[in-house]
């Protein structure tokens, strides 16, 4: 009777020694396996960390692109007799509430606007100042005086008093040199006097512009609240005065200002930009939580930072979902390659394993000896991979679960396959002599295999259905989405199992055709293919690799095409103009552009929200007033859908007595169907209402204006009304109602960008007009760090998967070369030539290559379409219509080319090796 100790010794005896000797014999194969494992572990560990690092960079860029919208702004509370005290207290309160995450705090104060008669025309003005809340001398580095003298406190003899009751109150101020040049203000011959208030014939308050200055840094945070101190700023007013110029009050003159303008009449704010210099995504998330908490508890903080970060988080979820497909796809393909390498190792040792088993070795001892060989190798390789990743990506976080899975496959696959080889070579099971009993056992084995295959198919279907139903879900930092990533792998595995069932019938059909051909090549190739058609592991590896190559390429193509479509939809033409197009600069631009070379069409537009629909219906609409025929031409030129009847909205013939042709959104038409109107449908315009003649429906969405460059651009434009109504500008004007002035325009044509550049429009802060080019916005959106990192990852993933596909086929060729070599060597003694031998090799591998290519291509093209909602394409492309998968041919061709190249090289190398076989040795020994 054996004791447990005896059993343990029998199982483990000589494991280390035998493992070391076998490793030395197969050093080349083990070294290749270690290199494959090292590469797989490096990718599995590094890629999640690279995505995490790209997320940090992209979050910083998104906040920076948001500009002043992401700044934290606070207002002093209560009343005070001075300016500096409440501003300093608010700045200190901000510093206490936000100890980290915010940059230098800047306080500013400004008065109400008033009209000033200038040398050329009237302009709006107000006094404003920057308060030194952090450094008493900080303002000394803000401006440089270039003309006149810097403002100084007013001497006492110039101030009103009992002895000088007729003197006006005065304050010395400065004006920016750029604004002065625009207005024609000069101080060379003396100060420029501004009468702020007057009582009949007496001036009460006099602002004295003593000098002109230039900001040392126009982009400094001190000017964010006061752009009018840098240059002329366009404003919207009911009068013809549409420019605003600030009058700068240095801190040393604040006491004079408060005697003229009471403190309670000055609006004071403290602004702090987000410090993105070294901020990580975790830092920005913590800042967002603090902002929401402080805003909810104090009510003193206003910022769009939470909205900016929320939009970025949505994009990050989509990017991580697609990155999960690439990362786990590479890991799964590498793991299958490791399984093939383990099978190759077990095949080389089949004779030794059979001998051990014949001598009484247990399967447990076979597994232990195999583990004694693979565990040290995997641990050493994993240590190298971890050291390299930690050294090259310090501080980055990422999951190690994928790498652990790959390492587990590398450890267990050789041991399991060695045990299987030993068990199949020598088994204690007795074969029944009864034919019926043997048939019954074969039926049980077939049933078990079919059950297992059906289980894989059911799991694949369940994974796809689950992903479709749940949609896009967030994952933790550095993590991957296992269910989404498992769906294509399981689907490819199910396809491989289906191919294994279908391939034998196809091979038999091909064999019948080959049998009628002349020569030995075709029948031999068909005969060799019979055995290869049912090999599960090689076909599974090839199918999964091809599926993931095609899937990754399809995602790359879908994102790129979606970004181009988004640029067309967001911009709407080659160039768009937004802002004060009713000002002189805007009117001149709209007048010059139609005649510019290379400009095909110019569309003027205006969008009015909250327009009343009907009478007493409780419905509202977003009214789009556009040049309808030109808009139809512009959209057609960009390949955008054009509503039937859009161009006909501008048909002449509309007058004050006829309804205005209009297109309504389907949702609005459906709501109106339940409320029939008598006398025609009336839509509110500006201060009037017009009757419209519904000519059809429109798929146009509310225009979001100039598209931003941060993550908010991917958010759909919210529809605040019940629908959209589109009318033509000229048709609306013919009714006699007031037509809204255009606030946006689309310019189309090959020379549109050059024509707009030739206008020499001032910056948006000065002209009030924002210029957005279609190509420029597309480049900026595609150049976002997150989008760029994902595109790089997916493109590189396609290349890595193609290399793994080649390696898969090479391993299959090498693994089957021994048996194929014995057959071909024997046939060579009977006169088999090299051409027929190549045909036999190609025929044997044809089911594997063709089946894997077809199955993998179908899975790679279909799975993205099935799980579109879980890929988050709209957040990556910016397409407001939602994401759609764009099938790509080039990844299929890449996979086919990789398979063909690998097959050609492998067959050629095998032929060269077989040429060295000596036929005399084959005849003497029998086979090799």
Automatic annotation (TrEMBL):
GO CC term, one of those recorded: plasma membrane
Domain ABC3 transporter permease C-terminal span(s) in chain numbering: 799-912
Principal place of residence: membrane
Superkingdom of origin organism: Bacteria
Entry keywords, A to Z: Cell membrane, Membrane, Transmembrane, Transmembrane helix
Protein localization: Cell membrane
One Pfam family hit: FtsX
Membrane-spanning ranges: 27-47, 325-346, 366-393, 399-423, 450-467, 487-510, 531-551, 796-815, 845-868, 888-909
Membrane topology of the entry: Multi-pass membrane protein
Protein name per its UniProtKB record: ABC transporter permease
Lineage, top ranks: Bacteria, Bacillati, Actinomycetota, Actinomycetes, Micrococcales
């Amino acid at each position: 009777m054996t004791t447990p100790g005896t059993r343990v010794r029998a199982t483990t005896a000589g494991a280390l020694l035998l493992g070391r000797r076998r490793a030395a014999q197969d050093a080349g194969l083990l070294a290749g396996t270690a290199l494959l494992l090292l590469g797989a572990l490096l990718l599995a560990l590094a890629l999640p960390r690279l995505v995490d690092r790209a997320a940090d960079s992209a979050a910083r860029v998104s906040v920076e692109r948001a500009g002043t919208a992401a700044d934290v702004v606070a207002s002093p509370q209560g009343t005070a007799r001075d300016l500096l005290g409440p501003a300093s207290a608010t700045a200190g309160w901000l510093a206490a509430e936000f100890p980290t995450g915010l940059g230098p705090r800047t306080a500013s104060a400004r008065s109400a606007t008033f009209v000033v008669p200038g040398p050329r025309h009237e302009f709006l003005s107000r006094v404003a100042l920057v308060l030194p809340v952090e450094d008493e001398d900080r303002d000394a580095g803000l401006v440089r005086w270039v003309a006149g003298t810097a403002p100084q406190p007013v001497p006492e003899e110039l101030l009103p008093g009992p002895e000088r009751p007729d003197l006006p109150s005065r304050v010395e101020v400065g004006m920016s040199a750029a604004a002065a040049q625009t207005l024609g203000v000069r101080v060379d011959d003396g100060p420029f006097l501004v009468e702020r208030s007057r009582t009949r014939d007496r001036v009460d308050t006099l602002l004295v512009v003593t000098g002109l200055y230039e900001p040392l840094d126009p982009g400094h945070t001190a000017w964010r609240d006061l752009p009018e101190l840098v240059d002329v700023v366009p404003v919207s007013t009911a009068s013809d005065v549409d420019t605003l110029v600030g009058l700068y009050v240095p801190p040393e003159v604040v006491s004079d200002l408060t005697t003229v303008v009471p403190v309670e009449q000055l609006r004071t704010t403290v602004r702090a930009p987000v410090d993105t210099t070294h901020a990580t995504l975790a830092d920005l998330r913590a800042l967002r939580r603090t902002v929401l908490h402080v805003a909810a508890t104090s009510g003193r903080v206003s910022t769009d930072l939470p909205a900016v970060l929320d939009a970025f988080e949505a994009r990050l979820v989509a990017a991580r979902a697609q990155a999960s497909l690439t990362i786990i796809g590479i890991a799964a393909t590498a793991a299958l390659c490791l399984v093939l390498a383990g099978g190759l190792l077990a095949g080389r040792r089949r004779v030794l394993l059979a001998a051990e088993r014949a001598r009484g070795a247990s399967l447990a001892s076979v597994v232990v000896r195999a583990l004694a060989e693979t565990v040290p190798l995997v641990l050493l390789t994993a240590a190298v991979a971890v050291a390299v990743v930690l050294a090259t990506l310090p501080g980055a976080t990422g999951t190690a679960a994928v790498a652990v899975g790959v390492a587990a496959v590398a450890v267990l696959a050789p041991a399991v396959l060695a045990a299987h080889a030993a068990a199949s070579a020598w088994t204690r099971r007795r074969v029944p002599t009864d034919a019926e009993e043997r048939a019954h056992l074969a039926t049980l084995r077939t049933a078990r295999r079919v059950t297992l295959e059906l289980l894989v198919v059911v799991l694949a279907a369940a994974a796809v259905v689950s992903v479709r139903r749940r949609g896009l879900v967030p994952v933790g930092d550095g993590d991957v989405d296992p269910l989404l990533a498992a769906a294509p792998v399981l689907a490819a595995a199910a396809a491989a199992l289906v191919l294994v069932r279908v391939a034998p019938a196809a091979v038999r059909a091909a064999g019948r055709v080959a049998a009628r051909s002349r020569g030995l090549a075709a029948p031999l190739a068909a005969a060799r293919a019979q055995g290869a058609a049912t090999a599960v592991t090689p076909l599974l590896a090839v199918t999964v690799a091809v599926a993931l190559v095609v899937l990754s390429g399809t995602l790359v193509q879908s994102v790129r095409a979606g970004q181009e479509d988004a640029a067309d939809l967001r911009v709407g033409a080659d160039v768009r103009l937004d802002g004060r197009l009713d000002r002189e600069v805007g009117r001149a631009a709209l007048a010059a552009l139609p005649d510019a070379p290379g400009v095909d069409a110019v569309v003027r537009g205006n969008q009015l929200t909250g327009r009343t629909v009907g009478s007493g219906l409780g419905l509202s609409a977003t009214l789009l007033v556009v040049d309808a025929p030109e808009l139809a031409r512009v959209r057609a030129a960009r390949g955008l859908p054009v509503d039937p009847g859009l161009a006909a909205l501008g048909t002449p013939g509309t007058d004050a007595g006829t309804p205005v042709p209009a297109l309504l959104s389907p949702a609005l038409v459906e709501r109106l169907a339940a409320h029939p109107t008598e006398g025609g449908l009336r839509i509110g315009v500006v201060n009037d209402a017009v009757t419209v003649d519904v000519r059809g429906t429109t798929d146009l969405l509310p225009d979001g204006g100039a598209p931003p460059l941060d993550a908010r651009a991917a958010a759909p434009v919210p529809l605040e009304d019940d629908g959209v109504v589109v009318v033509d500008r000229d048709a609306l004007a013919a009714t006699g109602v007031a037509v809204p002035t255009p606030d946006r325009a689309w310019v189309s044509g090959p020379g549109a960008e050059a024509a707009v550049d030739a206008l020499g429009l001032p910056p948006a802060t000065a002209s009030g007009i924002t210029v957005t080019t279609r190509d420029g916005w597309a480049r900026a959106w595609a150049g976002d760090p997150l989008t760029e990192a994902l595109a790089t990852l997916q493109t590189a993933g396609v290349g890595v998967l193609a290399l793994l596909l080649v390696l898969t086929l090479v391993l299959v060729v090498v693994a089957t070369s021994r048996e194929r070599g014995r057959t071909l060597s024997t046939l060579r003694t009977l006169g088999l030539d090299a051409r027929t031998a190549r045909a036999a090799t190609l025929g044997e591998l044809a089911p594997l290559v063709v089946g894997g290519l077809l199955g993998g291509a179908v899975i790679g093209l279909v799975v993205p379409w099935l799980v579109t909602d879980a890929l988050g394409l709209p957040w990556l492309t910016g397409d407001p219509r939602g994401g759609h998968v764009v099938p790509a041919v080039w990844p299929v061709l890449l996979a086919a080319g990789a398979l063909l190249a690998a097959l050609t090289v492998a067959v050629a190398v095998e032929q060269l090796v077989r040429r060295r076989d000596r036929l005399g040795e084959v005849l003497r020994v029998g086979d090799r």
